[in-house]
Amino acid sequence: MGLRVAVVGATGNVGREMLAILEERLFPADEIYALASRRSQGVEVSYGDRTLKVKDIEQFDFSGVDLVLMSAGSAVSKEWSPKIGATGAVVIDNSSAWRMDPRVPLVVPEVNPDAVLGFDKLNIVANPNCSTAQLVVALKPLHDRAKIKRVVVATYQSVSGAGKDAMEELWSQTRKLFVADEIVKEHFTKQIAFNVIPHIDAFMEDGATKEEWKMMAETKKILDPAIKLTATCVRVPVFVGHSEAVNIEFESPLSAEEAQEILREAPGVMLVDRREDEGYITPVEAVGEFATFVSRVREDATVENGLSLWCVSDNLRKGAALNAVQIAELMLNKGLFKRLAAA
Predict the structure, then answer these.
(1) For the chain, what are the domain ranges?
(2) Would you state the pLDDT for residue 339?
């Protein structure tokens, strides 16, 4: 017996990726529904070899499903996720709407799988921010060994993290630069083609952006509230794949060689770290992959017990769609879906 699954936001980048990953990982879905707003009703999306016609979320009966993968933005999730949870279906939400709600577990299966057991307060589980997800996968095994005190991270985040319109803006500006046409800025505050923008999400009173705050707050909730973290989040002219330069300070000594051995065996991590040309991973190689890649592991002599590393992942996958499906797999393995548990 499989689950009845609905994907909300099925026409977006992440929604389409969710459908692809459900099929790739042979997720046991007896029925699958693609949902979006009324303006997308009738649009066709792919699910393996099948084509699904998108249904209107307003007209859909959620009492007939067991699992909802929600990727339609915070406003939609705030309105719909509690309603869907009240029907008995489990919502795994990809937006920021519920991440810091104390009633809602924020889960990365390789890092804090047992946190999912708290889902039943609202029948909602939150997916972390894309930049946080890959970071904590790399940090967790090192934290278990030497206990992390402080993290300084600079991100290099692709435009796909800002949606389809952002990807189109990069493509459009790049073409216009080659033919000397006027550059139009619509989605980003500055030109994104052949540029980098140190500004993701809104500015806060202390000068940090909300994206930077999310990385700090979510890492504390997922991994350890005692960890101190500061981030500088930068949008770069890459279509898919987030990269991070990470500096870590530990309570105990940890050599680069031991860290490499730990990461080589860590769940969800792929260590590619040869100190030679091409001996590291870039976003281009990470696209379409499930792993969080780690390279450039080295000791930092400027602090006691310090390491630096480079971390890359497909943000549409581990940063969003894959992590959501992994949460669903985790819940399935723990017998947390009511209809299946009662059967």
Answers:
(1) 3-127+320-342, 131-314
(2) 62
